[in-house]
Structures are given as structure tokens and as C-alpha cells.
Design brief:
By secondary structure, this protein is mainly α. Helices cover 57% and strands 0% of the residues. It has 2 domains: 42 residues, no CATH class; 52 residues. The longest helix has 17 residues.
């Protein structure tokens, strides 16, 4: 197997192009760019099926506490946020 050394660039897109070029060189063939592969993928991952994204701006401290709580509980941050929404709905709709 051939080892390819990659030189870091200042932009993410530059890195992607460099990786693709390195893969093509190592494989001796053209590699389909990542964005084209993503565009061909149909639908959402199962974990995101029938869901939409909701965003909020919070302090660094709030984010840190949320992440730590999720780790302590062995759950995802998303799962913790969904539970907090349910608690709010229960509080204000009963």
C-alpha cells in the first residue's frame, strides 16, 4: 500500500481537494468528489428521519453544562434537549 503525505492548507476546501488528489494519485484512478457522493445519498440518516433542526444561542457555560450532563447520563446532547422540551410542554400544556 502506498503512503501519501498531505500538506495542510488554510482552507477546508483546499484540504478536501488535496485529499482527493492524493487518493487519485495513490489509487491510480479518478475518485468521485465527496460532495457528489453526498448529493447522491437519498433522504436523511435514520436518527434524523421525521425530524427538523431547532437552534438556539446559549452561553459557553450552558453548553458545557449540557455536554457534561449528557456524558454523565450516558446520553446524547440531542436526547437531553428533547427531554427538556418535553418537560416544558408538560409544564405549560397541563
Amino acid at each position: 500500500m502506498k503512503t501519501v503525505n498531505l500538506v495542510a492548507t488554510h482552507s477546508y476546501l483546499g484540504n478536501i481537494r488535496l485529499y482527493i488528489a492524493a487518493l487519485e494519485s495513490a489509487a491510480g484512478q479518478t475518485v468521485t468528489p465527496i460532495r457528489k457522493l453526498e448529493a447522491k445519498a437519498e433522504g436523511k440518516p435514520p436518527s434524523r428521519a421525521n425530524k427538523v433542526q431547532v437552534g438556539a444561542f446559549v452561553s459557553d457555560e450552558t453548553r458545557r453544562k449540557l455536554k457534561m450532563l449528557a456524558i454523565e447520563q450516558g446520553r446524547s446532547v440531542n436526547d437531553m434537549i428533547e427531554e427538556s422540551f418535553q418537560m416544558l410542554f408538560d409544564k405549560y400544556t397541563t
